[in-house]
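[Help] Beginner question about ligand-bound structures

Sorry if this is basic. My supervisor gave me a protein sequence and a SMILES string for flavin mononucleotide and asked me to "get the holo structure". I don't really know what that means in practice or what format the answer should be in. Inputs are pasted below exactly as I got them.
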Amino acid sequence: MEQPHFNDRSTPLSLSLTRRSGKARDMVAPGPTSAELDSILTAASRVPDHGKLAPWRFVVITDRDAFAALLGRLYRAEKPAPGRLELEALATFARQAPALVALVSAPRESHIPRWEQELSAGAAAQSLLMAAHAMGFAGNWLTGAPAALPGIAEELGVPGGRIAGFFFLGTPSRPLEERPRPALEDIVLRWP
Ligand SMILES: Cc1cc2nc3c(=O)[nH]c(=O)nc-3n(C[C@H](O)[C@H](O)[C@H](O)COP(=O)(O)O)c2cc1C
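Answer (accepted):
No worries, everyone starts somewhere. Holo just means with the ligand present. The predicted complex, written as structure tokens, is below.
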């Protein structure tokens, strides 16, 4: 099937068929306003959720210098003599793109399996990206070293949580690249 253009939002389905990631480092203003971000997060929270547990949290990260400092502090706690380049990479990560939301998977004690609660966080992630795309913004779901820093979820206000991803949002400064998508015959099975 021919790929519709990224900016083709003419039908609801074209949104799903055209979403692709931007690169956080290439995102510029404007990012979503506070009201637009609320709409994005409202959409992101409207996901299948077995047991209605809301086993995820969205952390809107506003002060990027403070976030860069936090990443540096947590990194140093793991690696007492870090290299300058490593610290710079963390600070650069923290300051990318006009808007940043951390999605934290926060499974609850429940008869609902943890795996299902984590899947719901993945659904929230995709809905967040789709909502941003519907509003004309590019999104980028990144984890990298920052997501794995011990204590990061706690520091962001979600004790016991696990970072599902950092979602960078903004306007792409250059056309988004497409990538090869899996062929349906490779990923779709017919049974029996
Ligand atoms: C859980 C998760 C974590 C990811 N973390 C990274 C990352 O740290 N760095 C990266 O380059 N891409 C990462 N990606 C991939 C990008 O978000 C994106 O999917 C990829 O660049 C392909 O672009 P597409 O969304 O247009 O298919 C991650 C994807 C997922 C699902």
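A couple of things worth pointing out: The longest helix spans residues 114-134. Residues 35 and 153 are 25 Å apart (CA to CA). Feel free to follow up in the thread.
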